[in-house]
Amino acid sequence: MEAEGEEDEDEDDLAVSSGAMPFTTSSSGNSFLIGDDPAHWPEKLKDSERCSIVQKGPVQLRGDFPQNTQGRRFTSTHYFLNMKNGEKIQRSWLVYSKTKDRAVCFCCRLFGDKQRFCTDGTNDWKNVSAFLKEHEKSADHLANMAVWRTLQQRLQTGKAIDHVNQELFVNEVNKWREILKRLIAIITHLAERNLAFRGHSEKLYEYGNGNFLGQVQLMAQFDPVMRDHVKRVAEKPHSESYFSKMIQNEIICLVGSCVTNTIVQRVKKSKYFSVIMDCTPDVSHDEQLSVVLRIVDCNPGEGVSIHEHFVGFLVAEDTTGKGLLNLFLGHLQTLDLDLADCRGQSYDNGSNMQGKKQGVQSRVLELNSKALCVPCASHTLNLVVGDAAKSSVTALSFFGLLQRLYAIFSASVHRWTILQKHVTYFTIKPLSTTRWEARVESVKAVRYQLPEILDALTALREYAEEKQDSECASNANGIHKEMKKWPFL
């Protein structure tokens, strides 16, 4: 149920704002951001903080707002005053606090101290229209509006009383903005290439300080902004540098969040999606569920294109079909996506994923009958070929001999050196355990270099006999004989 007498406007789902990004200065002299939400502002604002917020200006959020227990909510129509002649005048002073779900007066929150509306705002959505009309006519609100507009004009024209300090403040903000741009560029460059950030040391110009600080030092040789920053950090080691590992991790998370949000917007624009999931253990022996969304993108002038987007690794503590489904549904809720828009699912042939009764695919179909399951064709083919090959004793003997050949030469450096002296083109490789068709790489070396490999086995047997290694000599001689037999050839 909407607020009485109000209708939703067809506005963009973007915040309307202007001005530079506001910074404030703490008691220790550190600069930090002030959020757009009034709930995040300090309870007692300093003059520098008020100037920063006024420079940024009020941010009026748009889109869907949460409902209260009575089914009422704030709407974007409250940002406008409806005149009797039908004209609409924007209430530039009205902002919405998403954190507290309240409507707040921008200027009274900055300069007022007598009314409850100045600090907490209101969430009485049933009577909010009458309340806003009464508030905008009050003497305190009009006085705060005048102070706000005067300060805003003086800041824009540089005629404020502390305009010299304001200029210094703006220069400081711009300097830190340029530094952060360069640090973000370095971090994204390393992350895109999956390179390690840190080394054995976290100090500039020390050996082994890692790729991140190395890139900073390299940029400082050619870029004046980074050169001045590095020089200041070297002169004052305890000053703010934004070089720490915590800042690196925070920027990585922020960039990753921006990428994920962009992917989600693409998925929502396409409306329907398919899901591809698979589980695999990582180096810390945690089972991770990888989630990939596939969409069809239709752009006028560019035609139809299919895109696959990776949307996260999820730690799976429960690897049953029910546990994996709950993990996936929770991730969809985090991404603000609806399972009802899923039109396809594809997994490997594991029972927990592909099971007809308790698998993920059957449980998803119970919730959404339109999410048809298509097994992974490559994985299915790999299983069919692998099982077919295992049914043949000749095939098992053939590939087993190839694995023994690799094992005997790779057991030591001296044996591998003997192999390299005789085999110059294709080196022998172990059998692939995941993709059966990849075993052709193991066959190729023997197929085109059988005489050379036989000579290498003879040389290895002689070397083992010289070293009195009877086991190695016997294995080399046995492999040599088996490879000369007709079944192997």
3D architecture notes:
With 489 residues, this protein is of the alpha+beta class. Helices cover 48% and strands 13% of the residues. The protein has helices at residues 47-56, 106-111, 116-119, 128-135, 139-157, 163-192, 210-220, 224-235, 245-270, 321-334, 351-354, 360-367, 377-390, 393-409, 413-422, 440-448, 450-466, 470-483; strands at residues 23-25, 31-33, 80-82, 88-90, 94-97, 102-105, 273-281, 287-299, 303-315, 342-346, 372-373. Strands 9-8-7-10-11 form a 5-stranded mixed sheet. A two-stranded antiparallel ribbon has the order 1-2. A hairpin with a 5-residue loop joins β3 and β4. The longest helix has 30 residues, at 163-192. The chain starts with 22 loop residues before the first strand and ends in a 6-residue tail after the last helix.
